[in-house]
C-alpha cells in the first residue's frame, strides 16, 4: 500500500510540475510577444488577442498529446487568481481622458441597455420556468437574476 500511495503522489506531483512549467512558459512567451507587438507598433493583432491565440494553440497541443482526461480546468483558480488580475489590468490600462471624453455615449448605451437586457432576460427566464425548461422560479427571482446577468455585460465592456 505504501508504494502505491507514493507512486500516486509522485505522479500528481509530476503532473503539477508540468502544468506549472507550461503555464510559466506560456506567460513568458506572451510577455515576449507583447513586448514585440508594443515595440514594432503592430496593429493587426493586440497583445490580448495574441495571448488568446497562444492559449488556443497550447490547448490543442495538450489535448492531442496528453493522456485522456489528464488536463483539467479548475475554475476556482480562474475566479480567484486569474480574473482579478485581468480586471485590474483592464482598469489600470484604461486611458482616463478617452473614458471621460466619451462618458455621455457610454452612459447613454450602458444604462438603457442594461435595463432592457435585465427585463428581457428576466421575463424570458420566467417564461422558460413556466414551460418547465428551467427550475421553477417566480417573476421576481427571474428578474433579479436577469439584472445580475445584464449588469455584467456593460462592466465587462468598460
Structure commentary:
The protein is mostly helical and 158 residues long. Helices cover 82% and strands 0% of the residues. The protein has 6 helices and no strands. It has helices spanning 2-40, 47-65, 75-93, 96-101, 103-130, 139-157. Helix 5 packs antiparallel against helix 6.
- C-alpha end-to-end distance: 55 Å
Q: What percentage of the residues does DSSP assign to strands (E)?
A: under 5%
Q: Can you summarize the main beta sheet?
A: none
Could you state the order of secondary-structure elements as H and E? HHHHHH
| Rg, nearest Å | 22 Å
Tell the overall outline: flat
Multimeric status of the protein = single chain
The total beta strand count reads 0
Low-confidence segments: 1-12
* Average predicted confidence as pLDDT: 78
How helix-rich are the residues, as a percent range?
A: over 70%
Assign the structural class, choosing from mainly alpha, mainly beta, alpha/beta, alpha+beta, or little secondary structure: mainly alpha
How many individual helices? 6
Amino acid at each position: 500500500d505504501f508504494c502505491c500511495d507514493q507512486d500516486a503522489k509522485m505522479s500528481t506531483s509530476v503532473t503539477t510540475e508540468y502544468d506549472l512549467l507550461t503555464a510559466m512558459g506560456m506567460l513568458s512567451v506572451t510577455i515576449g510577444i507583447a513586448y514585440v507587438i508594443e515595440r514594432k507598433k503592430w496593429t493587426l493583432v493586440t497583445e490580448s488577442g495574441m495571448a488568446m491565440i497562444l492559449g488556443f494553440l497550447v490547448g490543442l497541443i495538450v489535448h492531442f498529446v496528453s493522456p485522456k482526461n489528464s488536463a483539467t480546468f479548475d475554475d476556482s483558480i480562474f475566479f480567484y487568481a486569474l480574473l482579478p488580475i485581468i480586471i485590474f489590468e483592464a482598469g489600470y490600462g484604461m486611458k482616463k481622458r478617452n473614458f471621460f471624453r466619451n462618458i455621455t455615449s457610454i452612459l447613454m448605451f450602458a444604462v438603457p441597455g442594461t435595463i432592457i437586457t435585465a427585463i428581457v432576460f428576466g421575463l424570458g427566464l420566467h417564461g422558460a420556468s413556466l414551460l418547465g425548461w428551467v427550475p421553477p422560479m417566480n417573476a421576481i427571482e427571474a428578474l433579479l437574476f436577469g439584472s445580475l446577468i445584464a449588469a455584467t455585460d456593460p462592466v465587462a465592456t468598460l
